[in-house]
Amino acid sequence: MEQWGPLVPAVAGIWPRVLEHLSGQELSDLETEVLDGLRAHEQACGKAATETPEVTPETFDAVDITARSVEDALRSRPPLGAWLNEEFDRLADSRERFGPAAAPAYWTAFRRSLLVPVMYATDRAEKRAEKSPRTYPGTYGSLRGDLSHGQATVSVPDDRAAGSVRKPRWWRLQFRPDPARDVVLEATEPSDADTFVERVRAQLDQGARREALVFVHGYNVTFADAARHAAQIAYDLNFTGVILLYSWASKGGVLDYPADGDAAARAMPYFRTFLTTLLTRTGVGDVHIIAHSMGNRLLTGGLAGLDTTALPEGSGRLGHVVFAAPDVDHDVFRDLLPAALRQARTCTLYVSGRDRALAVASRVSDFPRAGQAGTSVIVAPGLDTIDVTALGTDLLGHSYVGNHTSVLADLHALFRHGHGPEQRYGLARTPHPDGDYWSFQPQK
Q1: 417 and 298, same domain (yes or no)
Q2: Does one domain contain both 309 and 426?
Q3: Smallest Cα–Cα separation from 440: which of 350, 320, 322?
Q4: Distance between CA 85 and CA 69 in Å, rounded?
Q5: Cβ within 8 Å of residue 224, ≥6 positions away
Q6: Do residue 383 and residue 404 come from a single domain?
Q7: 40, 300, 356, 359, 407 from 395: Cα distances, Å
Q8: Distance of alpha carbon 158 from alpha carbon 93, whole angstroms
Q9: For residue 12, what are the domain limits?
Q10: Could you report the per-residue pLDDT of 99-147, keeping only the tens digit for each?
Q11: Could you tell me if 396 and 356 are in contact, meaning their C-beta atoms sit under 8 angstroms apart?
Q12: Organism's domain of life (predicted)?
């Protein structure tokens, strides 16, 4: 259904040329076919809007069939089909704001947004559709399962502010997602491991650089929100490699902190398996990783139990590894850090003295967290520690890695250009007994 979003404006765009090309009975016949098809298409789209996000297979098919009827009517009369293709391309180009690098060819323009494919692995249990083999957003819940794979498709609007992951809010009388306004999980398509590998390899083959970015979410995050955040971060970083998500079985509730901690620990062997598969079977060159909050427990523990430098010849390597606001015990992080430093090209730690979520976590756990700044800030040789305290972030001060434009710009300089902190804008060297770290300067 996604590819037909611009169908009506595309037909309208070429119609003046059609009037000049056809005349008489041929034009009358075409008008009848196209108008009937467009009416049916708009009715099918209207029904799909009422069913969002769980659109039934019958409605999906109706949208597709009616759109194809209009397309077929034009393609059966050359050169109208070629004109339609040109108009689709023009509409996509005029709406797209992803940049400066062009979006990968396998990202699709749709309704003033880009459809971003997020390849995923998860140890969540799958919620299967009861009446259809098709699957829909929300395929994975909070229950634990075995390692599974697939592709999630997320629409990211072209006029969304950088760092924003908007979704419908009931208090704004917004009850259904709008791809022109919201970041929306459109569909999930589970697959076996071999199909997953083939798809990742195919996407790498279409990219300029054989690199991938893995996002590992934190505590209190659903599968749908994790996929949306992965797509949003990749979009805002102008990342043109393969986007991947590892989603562990967070319950997605604020009162489930202890249970989420156990779930993160349980997921470590699955995460190692996923990372090994990605590095050894897909033909990837560099794998970059961003882990947020409690997701850093998977990352630090996972790398401590896996030596990626000893993988077979021809395997990919770890590129830039980012520990964002890690909800990891301060001493445990220090103990596990050498394993990551030994394997990755660079390791970056983002910390804040205004992270209220980590302040609560440290009180609950009786020990400071690795993502906290101040007297407990972690500084170590080979680790680039970045203090974001001066930026003034969101209410909790915890999600800055994805929603603060200064941090996104800092990450862009790292991932796109490989710049060290001394080459990146807005950072000042800060002395420390264990070596220097870097701090953002106060913003006016």
Answers
A1: yes
A2: yes
A3: 350
A4: 15
A5: 137, 138, 185
A6: yes
A7: 47, 27, 8, 13, 16
A8: 11
A9: 2-95
A10: 678 888 888 776 667 889 999 999 999 886 444 444 444 589 999 999 9
A11: yes
A12: Bacteria
